[in-house]
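Input/output pair, single chain:
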Amino acid sequence: MNRTETRELTFKLLYSNEIQKDIDQEQINIFLEQFEVKNESQRKYIKETFEGISQNLDEIVSLIDKNLKEKWTMDRISKIDIAILKLAIYELLKSDVPYKVVINEAVELAKKYGDDSSKSFVNGVLASIVKDKNIS
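Output:
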């Protein structure tokens, strides 16, 4: 399993959390077993990213909200797009992955799991955040 596949599993876990709310450590372990994630570095990435998003949730949600177009609110965004944005924003802020890679991976997830407008929406919000935060 490569980093893209690991990122996709992390997105699936985040999406599950959007639906179920408050996933605990036991549920994360069950998720990892269900998807047969045995590699320790992959397990670590998924767990640390999930926990990091939880710990930085206020900042992440604030960035999403601040970078929405006029008349858009968080409750209008699909749970799929929210999960993709949370993952990408966390990586933009807290990892050393180049922003172009983060945005590309997020857009690919949006193409695969979102509706027809998801890829443009996700790309637009993330591009606005990169510009706003002066991320390079």
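The two ends are 28 Å apart (CA to CA). The chain has one domain: 3-133.
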